[in-house]
Every structure is written in C-alpha cells, then in structure tokens.
Amino acid sequence: MSEKTTKKNFGAWFLANWKNNALFSTGIALIVMIILQTIALGFNYDSFGSWFTAWLSNWLNILRNNSSVGIIALGMTFVIISGGIDLAVGSTLVAVGAITMSLMDATNGGLLGMIGITGIPAYILTILLAILVGVLLGGCNGVLITAGKIPPFIATLGAMKILRSVTQHFMQSRSPKVPNDFLQIASFKIGGQMLMPILYWLFLAVVLYIVSKKTVFGRHVYAVGSNEKTTRLSGINVNLVKLGVYALMGAVVAVAAVLQISRIGAMDPANAGSGYELDAIAAVIVGGTSMSGGKGSVVGTVFGMLIIAVMNNLLNLLGVPPFLREAFKGAIIIAAVLLQRKSSDN
Amino acid sequence: MTLEMKGIYKSFGANDVLRDVSFTLSGGEICALLGENGAGKSTLMNILGGVHHADQGQIFLDGTPVVFQTPADSLKHGIAFIHQELNLVNDLAIYENMFIGHELKKKGGLLDAPRMIARTKEIFEKMDLDLDPRTMVRDLDASYKQIVEIARALLMEASIIIMDEPTTSLTEPEIRRVFDMMNTLKDSGVGIVFISHKLREVMEICTRFTVLRDGNMVSAGDIAETSIDRLAHDMVGHDVRTKSLRRAHEVGDTVLSGKGLTLEPVFRNVNFEVHAGEVLGFTGLLGDGRSELFQCIFGARRGYTGTVAVDGRELRIRSTTQALKAGIGYVPRNRKENGIIKDMSILENGSIVTWARDSRIGFLKKKKIADAFNRQEQELHIKLGSVKDLIGSLSGGNQQKVVLAKWLTANPRVLVFDNPTQGVDVGAKEEIYDIILKLADAGVAIIVLSSEAQEIIRVCDRTLVMFHGDVCGELVGDEMNEQAIMRLATGGQV
C-alpha cells in the first residue's frame, strides 16, 4: 500500500518537474544520452579498470573538443536571456585570435617584442589585451544595438561579415607562430591528461552561473529579457545592461580565442570559429533558454552543450556517416524546442 | 431568442467557482453581469461560450436544452463572445477581418473580395454605420475596433452577444459610440451580456443585472429598481465608501514642481507643484497628455522643454535611474506591460527597484531584500502563497500591491500613481486608496493620474484638469465634483 503511494508520488513528482522545470527535463535527456553512449562504447574489456580508462579518455576527448564552443555558449546564454542574439562570435574569435598572435609572434617577437616586452609578462599582457579587444568588439555591437537601435540580429550579422573579412585581409600574407611557452596555457598536462581547456570551461561556467543568479547585473539581464519596459520604468538603465551583456560576450569569446590558439597553436583566418555562433546558439536552446528572452540558465546551457556533444560521440561510436550527423543535431534542436513549448503551454 | 442557464455548478480542482448559478436573458435586453474579480463571471460566460463545460446544470435556448462542446458550437447557436482583448488582425482590412476563417471564395478558390465587401456593407447598413469595409483595422480607433467585432458577431447571425469589459480602453466619446451601437442592437432584438466594473455605465446602458459573489448568485433584477450603492454593496458584500476620503492635515514644503513643461503636440506649458503630505490629482480624458507628462518627468521619455525641480533644486532628469536617485517613483498604467515582469518571482518583482542599492560589489544582499519585501507584504496585506511563486499567480489587486511594494522599499519623496486601480476589484481599490492616504500622512508627496473622476474626488486634496495637453483648470477640495471635472476635461470653463 505504502509502496504504491510512493510510486504514485514519484510519478506525479517526476511529471510535474518534467513539465515545469526546464533544467530537470534537459538533465534527464542528458542522463539518457550518457547511458546510451556508455552502452554504445561497449563492455568488451578485460577488466573494469581498462574499461574505465577507455570510458574516461573518451569523455575527456568530448569535453576538450567542445570547450571553445562550450565557453562561447555560456556568454551566449546571457545574450539570449536578455532578448538578443550574437551572430558575430565566430568572427570575433578569429579577430581576437589574429591580434593575440600578432602581439607575441614567435618568429619576430611580435608587436610586444618590438617594444621590448617578452616572456611571461608579454603573455600576461597579451591575454589582458585580448580580453580588452573582445570587450571592445562586443561593446561595439552593444552600442549599435542600444544607441543605434539596430536589431541585434542585424547588428551582429554585419559585425560578423566585417570582422571576418578585415581579419582575412590583414592576415593573408602573415602566419604568426605561437610561442611554445604560450601553448602551455591549454596544453599543460595534469596526470598525463590535457585537462586545462575543460577546467577553464568549468571555471567560467561556475563564475557565470554565480553572476546570473547572485548579482544585480545577472538579475537585471533576466528582467530586461522578460519585460524591457517594466525594467526601464523600475529605474534601471536598460541600455547599460544590454551593453554589459554584449561586452561580456566579447570577453568570453576572447577567452575562447586565447584557449583555442594555445591548444592548436595556429588559427586559420578563413575557417577558424566559423559556425561557432550557430553551435553556441544550439547549445543554449537545447539547454532550455527561451529565444524570446527572460527565461533560461547557465547550467542548462552546459547540459545543452553536453547533450549535443555526447550525441555526436554516440553517432560516431555507432558508425553513422559524418555527413549525416548534422541531421541528428538539427533534429535534437527541434525536438528540444518542441518539448519545451509543450511544457510552457501547460 | 431567450436564454436560460439553470443551476450551473463548476469547479476547478478543489476550487468551487460556480455554485447553483442561474442566468436569463431575452432578446432586446442588455443585462449587466457584475461581480469582483474571481466572482465567477468569466467562468459563467465561458460555459455559455463553449470554452468550459458545466459540472451540473443546463442551458436552454427558447426552451430547448442545448449542449455546447466548443466555441464553434456556441456560435452556431447564435451566441458570440467578444473578449476583452480584441481578436482583430491589424494588418488586414475590415472586411478581411470580418470573414477571417470562413472567407468567401470564387470558383477557382481565389478570394471573392467584392462579395465580402458587399456583405460587410450590408451589415454596416443594418447597424447604421458609415464605414468603408476596405479600411485597414490598424487605422481604426479602439471603439470602431469594438464595433467591427460586433459587426462580425452579426455576420455570424448572433442573437446573443457577450461583451467582456468593452469600455476599459475607450475614451468618453468612443464609449458613447459603442453605447449607441448597443442600443441600436437592443432595439433590433439582440440580447447583450455586458460584463463591467463600471457601475455608472451599467446604470446608463443596461436594462437588467445579475450580481455574482464568490461563485454564488447574490441578486438579479431590473436596473430601474436598483442604485449604484446597492449594486456595489451586493458585489463586495458590505457597504462601499463612496464619500471623499480627504482629511484635515498639514501640508509641508514643495517637493516636486514643474515649470513651462512642453512636449508638442502632447502637452504644453504645464506648471504645477506638489507638497509633502499632499495628494495632487491630474485628470482628464484619454489623450490629455498627463501620462506622457509624468513619463517625461520620470525620465522615461525625452525631448520636452521646461524645468523640473525637486526640493527647489532644478534637475535635468534624462533617465529613470536619475529619477529614482532624485526620489521620484512611478507606478505605471497597464500593469501587464509596464508594471510586472512575468518570468520573475513575486519577491523579485517586489524588489527590483532597490537591487542596486541593496547590494555589495554587485552581489545582491538576499536577506536584506527579502526582509524589506516582507515588511511591505505585511504592511500592504499582500495575499500570496510563497514569495518565490511567479507574479502571475496573484490576482490583479495583489499584483498591483507588489508593484507598489517595489516603490515603497525605495522610500521615494514623490510617488506618481498612473491609473492605480486599473483592473483591480472593488475591495482592492479601497485598500489602494488607504495606502495612498497613509503614504501622504507619512509625508510623501503623491500624484494620482486618473480619468475616473470619482477616484480623483475620493483621494485627492486638489486636482489639475487637462484637456488636449493643456492644464485648463484647478479644483481644490469641495470644488471637485464630477460636473466640474467633466466640464474642464471636455474643454469647457469652470
């Protein structure tokens, strides 16, 4: 009798959460995905130890490969919650990357080398300048959107084209080389594993989670996205909040750029970061953030990114041809939104 | 056609919404359906409109029992429901809106515009209405939109029309136009259910009334045999104060003043000052510019000329943030668009104004914020489950109190109330008046913007009356009465 009621209660509890709590349903989806992936990986190993090693290294691969987009998606969460969108992130990444590499080019010491700054101070200064450039580029989008009253989609679409093209033009005859020491930022090994990119991602996720939940700025972003007019009439400088959102996005992209350079050691101005904007937006949406603003979470975005990444890995393990995998990605985006719409209608 | 609803019961979960309610209506009648928010008016009409199904009870049309499964069923039986939020597409012409969903087509499947226009014209002629069916709905004022909805009901051959608070967003002349139309329909034998909070209008236009309270039918009868006071009493269950609430008090120094405030063509050369502890009214008809005037003063609109001074110091307020710093608060009109943030909790809605103040290096002081809201919750008697619930879980009156709470925690020197009792029921209205007077007693300078003369007379010490952007008169104390206000508000002299 009592067992029956607990079962019923669990069912009701599950259903209520599934319907009303976006984080809960994405979490469940992620767990299901991980179980499938684990099964697909197989249990054909001599011992638990060797199975676990294989499982772990597969996971580390997934996390590492998705760290750049994962980081960008964290910033994108703020942009989309504020009711905007940023299509320029891929181009911003390549622009910041080009500037970063030119600053400390290993072949001739770079721009910083020319004024006599080398070694560790040069690297620190480079990172700071990279973030500053990111903030400025993001801030430009913010100014266009607030002062210029241009819809975010259009402003950032323009910025996307401009930044990519200008970067390509200036980098066409140059190929700066990243100093070996700088590569350590991402490649420094812990326990024989390249964990740094994953740790940066995790660290930023925690920081931005706290910003979104506990700070005045974070809550203002939600308020602006949900009802801009009410927020303005509550004595809040809405334009400043939006400017902050795009500047933050720029800073986050700069971090991803530095990370990508130090992980790969090079950056192709034509292709690097292209498609990141859509991948980041996809992660945010699958994570339950509403495109119309006001609703969503940083944790959801991490889940969303992982769902897409794990599914990709699963398809790979199952031997699905590479060209077909994008179709599954498309399907999961649509499925996620369908599920979420159902839950908000009830 | 005669309609009879008998012994209707309806509950949602454990919540009994209607208990043994009966309602009758004959052709050629306008019957007022009255009650506070949550009394069951909408549920009753939604049952009639086929949106909900009664748990018990029956509906008879001309004596034959009928069952409505869907709104389409109900419409087929000649019952049309005109909702408060109108169902028109702004970017289509009138005739397209009239026929939306069942367009007339030519043989090839293409639209037959000439026939639709002609049919629309026929209906308009029946209604004695001179309007081109090809006009875009966007270009119509609110009353004509209401009338197009009525015309659509007639096109469907409705003989009973339910109108849910049709006058809330209309100006006085627009209300006249809709009332004339309703009278024309009444004379041609159509039965109308008129849902409204405005008892004065009910007395004027309706022939019969039914009052619901907490899901029970408390009274029904002929309008000719009742009075506003009686209706109000039936609605709230106790006597409602209709007398002025003004009291003897001392007026302090000037807190806020405006000189030569102009924003063509919205308002021009407005001068006023409001003192600590005083309740100053701004009234007039819709389009008189008072809302825009105070949005300018509050920094939410730009481009005006003239000077604003707080405590005698001239200020140039360019943003709402500066207004807040200067001690000016603004409780806006249209709560849904301007007052609340629907995705946020009651607590967040009730504290957003003070987040910046109650924080350390950008981090919210959660406890301080919660305590401050808690105090307001007690003070204002806000009825809520948990402060973490979404704001939408509250009734209109309680939502408005939350909007008030967010401003009260900011301790403003001047608080502007723009249409403070819009969409709240009679009981909550009284509570809001009490809050306004209590604030004034505590030394806050209060400005009340309202087009309800009764509201101004009840809470204000004095009032300025505006007409098309000009202040055309001031009424102090006992000079304030509906006739005097209406005369000034329509451009006349005292």
UniProtKB/TrEMBL annotation, chain A:
Checking CDD domains in the record gives: TM_PBP1_transp_AraH_like (cd06579)
Where's it mainly located?
A: membrane
What subcellular compartments does it reside in? Cell membrane
UniProt keyword terms in alphabetical order: Cell membrane, Membrane, Transmembrane, Transmembrane helix
Database matches in InterPro entries: ABC_transp_permease
Q: How is this protein positioned relative to the membrane? A: Multi-pass membrane protein
- Is Cell membrane given among the entry's keywords? yes
- Enumerate the transmembrane spans: 21-43, 69-99, 111-137, 194-212, 243-261, 298-317
Protein's UniProt keywords contain Transmembrane: yes
Can you say what this protein is called?
ABC transporter permease
UniProt source species = Anaeromassilibacillus senegalensis
From TrEMBL, chain B:
Q: Does the keyword Zinc apply?
A: no
Q: Does the keyword Metal-binding apply?
A: no
Alphabetical UniProt keywords: ATP-binding, Nucleotide-binding, Repeat, Transport
- Start and end residues of each ABC transporter domain: 3-239, 240-493
- Superkingdom of origin: Bacteria
Q: Which GO terms describe its molecular function?
A: ATP binding
InterPro entries, per the entry: AAA+_ATPase, ABC_carbohydrate_import_ATPase, ABC_transporter-like_ATP-bd, ABC_transporter-like_CS, P-loop_NTPase
Q: State the Pfam families in the record.
A: ABC_tran (PF00005)
Question: Which protein are we looking at?
Answer: Sugar ABC transporter ATP-binding protein
Give the organism, scientific name: Anaeromassilibacillus senegalensis
